[in-house]
Known about the structure:
Elements: E1 6-9, E2 13-19, H1 23-28, E3 44-50, E4 56-66, E5 69-75, H2 79-89, E6 96-99, E7 104-110, H3 125-134, E8 145-148, E9 157-162, E10 174-176, H4 178-187, H5 222-231, E11 236-245, H6 249-256, H7 269-276, E12 291-293, E13 300-307, E14 313-319, E15 336-338, E16 343-347
Amino acid sequence: MLARNALVRLSNRKVLQVQGVDAARFLQGIVTNDMKVLTKPQDAMYGAFLTTKGRVLGDCHIVQLENETYLLDYDESVEQELAKHWKRYKIRMKATLEDKTNEFTSVAALPALISGDDFSYLPVGDEVENLLQQNTREPSASTGVVYRDPRGVEFGVRAIIPSNHTLNLPESYQEASLPVYKDRRVLLGAAEGQELHDSIPLEASLELLHGVSFRKGCYVGQELVARTQFKGNVRKRFLPVAFIRSAEQDLVLELSQIPFQRLDAAGLTPLRKFLVTDGATHPFSIEHGTSIVRPDSTKSVASVISAGEGVPVAVAMVRLEHLLPKESGEVPSMQFATADGAYHVVPFQPTWWPAVDIKTGKMVL
């Protein structure tokens, strides 16, 4: 489905309404992003909730529905832990928390990312803007809210709408199952829900996904995030990786000679072709925790966080020292494999990545 437009009803997402004069203040004190960016209905942001030690409990989208009313869209796998977290910090706040999952549903409109003709990477910015214009509505409890996915245009258009409603989309958008959405976000290198549990926000690239503010005031777990950004280095990150069966010798040889680069680079045309043709038709099964090594070593350089279902890609925690150019200018080639040798592994840079400092592994502010 990477080469086709899709509409997915996100049945794994929960919807929480936070309402009241202290709603924004309550969220501001516990979320990694800055609530001040939400100034009017339909404004949306991405963020995460952390433990006091700065580890991720879960992530969410926060959308302003009306004045003093916000909807939180989050994965059901972290529902219990987040509920306990919210209850702990809501004391003496004039805000109500109400589950709205039975009234609202979350949906995602996903424009095609790869051309099925020449396998080029498709710019989707205009398509996303067109979808937003076609679904212009006054945000309310009766109509819901439609918004650009705050993580980046490649993630498409999101909506939290009444369960019996749908989006106004061109005929080319086919309704698809939940695994299609997972394949898309895994290709983009984004983890969600339980996949993020206990991770360090910057290693999970949450700040690159516009989910962390370094300019807001204090919030729960901020100390570790700030210390890492301003005083430390990020030595490993969540990245998308592709798996190619070792038996595909010609393709393996071609892709093993290229440097780490963005998925839209001309040099990765063979990979994009593989992902929408042979890669989308062959059985693929990679488990969480699968170790990725260099062929000449048994030492792990990466481990799988979450794998796609219809496309041979995964989000993996990768040590950046094996990908980024050395100070001498030497550029490492992508010679990686699963520990059992069954697959050649190609890490690639998401197209939404901003400038990242080679020496520190951190976003250039």
